[in-house]
Amino acid sequence: MLLIDCPHCGPRDENEFHYGGQAGIACPTGDVTDEQWAAYVFMRDNPKGWFHERWFHVHGCRTWFTVERHTVTHEIRKP
Amino acid sequence: MTHPDFLWRNPEPRPAYDVVIVGGGGHGLATAYYLAKNHGLTNVAVLERGWLAGGNMARNTTIIRSNYLWDESAAIYEHSLKLWEGLSDELDYDLQFSQRGVLNLAHNLSDVREGRRRVNANRLNGVDAEWLDADEVKKFCPIINVSDRARYPVMGATLQRRGGIAKHDHVAWALARQADACGVDLIQGCEVTGFELTGNRVTAVETSRGRIAAGKVALAAAGHTSVLAERAGIRLPLQSHPLQALVSELLEPVLDCVVMSNAVHVYVSQAHKGELVMGAGIDAYNSYGQRGGVHVIEAQMAAALELFPVFSRVRVLRTWAGIVDVSPDASPIIGPTPVDGLYVNAGWGTGGFKATPGAGWVYADTLAHDRPHPLAQPYALDRFTTGALIDEHGAAAVAH
């Protein structure tokens, strides 16, 4: 189980959180092609290494926040 | 069990092949086998970073079924199941393929409606399916707790009698032996580190054992597909997650069918040797770490004990995880990529084992003819742009 540092509540067990996937996905604006929309909805990075991702403290303060985590070692560092 | 290296040669890579398959798991080996058998293509190499079938092929829960909701899914999984039914004879190897029946439990009214709908859909697609009420479930699998006081009461189940399990190692070894006998080079300890492109066409792979020229390159790397695709300069809509499973200590025969519960993320069968084999849902986060959180196992065990109180004193022998590549609609991606000559077979997520022969069959056909096999056509990469999804997430929940 991961120990995740909630910015409001401090380090808490992973099962208090909900995973939100890759961070920094912006909704495209203006004239959007099907390809751009598909990329926004479906395409995410899937790196073997450091990854910026969203977590939601669903069973706590309900804050959404970003952490940087390594997808092999599971080590978490502050972004 | 020891790896039977005597069943295949261990050749040095040659400088060039017509087809290079990246990934020596079940799908890669099946693809190589059917390339040779169905299409006479034997100038083929399977490149495996580790050892043959040491990834998800060694880590799955070996469940085989074809009772999928959507037409496209039923077609490809039923094709696969029909191949399973003749595979031991064809490969001349006892795969311990056992059609002992697969139950998918319903725990609430919407599960019941969904299950009945699926039985009808399956029958329309020529897939055997039956609906059992709670009493019939009890008769079919006496150790299930069907009391209405259970945390997850059993209100019925779908049953596919032709579903079952097989011995995963035997499947890989049998396919490897036959592919090797046809002249396919199975090259272990050979990691693909890059792709050589001429214009927009792939012409060679760079590997830890040198450059290998290739007429076509076929990815069959499951959880590591994204890593490889990135080296070829393309992005795929895949996310890699740990999927955990476990086995118990060896028991006397106690469970003679496969029981799955999508709602509570448990699936269990008893292997021929005697251990209970149980799978969970995926861990939520992206990972290549081949391990997951204990709380996922704990939640799964809690649900399993509600369903099977008789297991309460059974001890867990070991747990493990494989890395599964999950696509947005939980259906595979099979076919050409934006790079000419580079093909992908990925996104099988949590359900790839049952598809081993079927996926190999359609992937080999796709490679041999430079166009998607009819069963693979709906699984093209462009479905995420056109919107023609095959949404088995909704239809099959997570575990499938």
From TrEMBL, chain A:
A GO term, aspect molecular function: sarcosine oxidase activity
InterPro entries on file: SoxD, SoxD_sf
UniProt xrefs under Pfam families: SoxD
Domain of life, per lineage: Bacteria
GO biological process: tetrahydrofolate metabolic process
Protein name per UniProt: Sarcosine oxidase subunit delta
Naturally occurring in which organism (per UniProt): Nonomuraea longispora
TrEMBL record, chain B:
EC annotation from Swiss-Prot or TrEMBL: 1.5.3.24
Keyword tags: Cytoplasm, FAD, Flavoprotein, FMN, Nucleotide-binding, Oxidoreductase
Keyword Membrane: no
Domain called Rhodanese: residue spans: 19-63
InterPro entries assigned to the protein according to its UniProt record, in alphabetical order: FAD-dep_OxRdtase, FAD/NAD-bd_sf, Rhodanese-like_dom, SoxB
UniProt-listed GO biological process terms: tetrahydrofolate metabolic process
Reactions performed catalytically: sarcosine + O2 + H2O = formaldehyde + glycine + H2O2; sarcosine + (6S)-5,6,7,8-tetrahydrofolate + O2 = (6R)-5,10-methylene-5,6,7,8-tetrahydrofolate + glycine + H2O2
UniProt KW Cytoplasm keyword: yes
Family membership noted in the UniProt record: Belongs to the SoxB family.
The protein's name in its UniProt record: Sarcosine oxidase subunit beta
Organism in which the protein naturally occurs: Nonomuraea longispora
